[in-house]
Hints:
Layout: H1 2-15, H2 26-32, H3 38-45, H4 58-63, H5 73-89, H6 102-108, H7 115-125, H8 130-144, H9 152-163
Helix pairs in contact: 1-5, 1-8, 2-3, 5-7, 8-9
Amino acid sequence: MRSDVNALLDAIERAFAGVGPGAITLHEAEVLDNYAVEAERQRARRHDPETDWREVPDASIVACPTALSHLDPDGWRFYLPACMRYALRTWDRPHAPPAFSIDQVIYTLAPGCDPELRAHTIIRFERLDEAQRAVVVRFLELAASDDDAADAVVAREALDGYWRRPADAS
């Protein structure tokens, strides 16, 4: 399993190299979950000076467990590899602190059933290029194979409901 994780970490590095930030930052997205006003959003943005997703500190990922749901499509694409990387590095301790988990990454990769939410989610997915999509599939396949470490059911649903379907079937 560890060799699969290491290979996937390398693939994430290659596939997402050069991806820049979006309009909404990680800490800003987290405060959006609490209906933040503009002044709170601006204060939160100051915690996210990174222009390369590889610079996002683990502490920021841990501090922002709901942020992935509130990012704009480009911001989601920027923070997704950092969150996948963090989830993979902590794979062997999914139920221990910190609060951020593998499942939060899985849930952001599941298109959902609600038509409005699905449309919003698909817009994010469409920002990914072929190499990035392949990395997501590998991440979800790993999650789907490990009921103890991840929400394997949702990972399988995401794979079958979107990621393994032809592009024109979305």
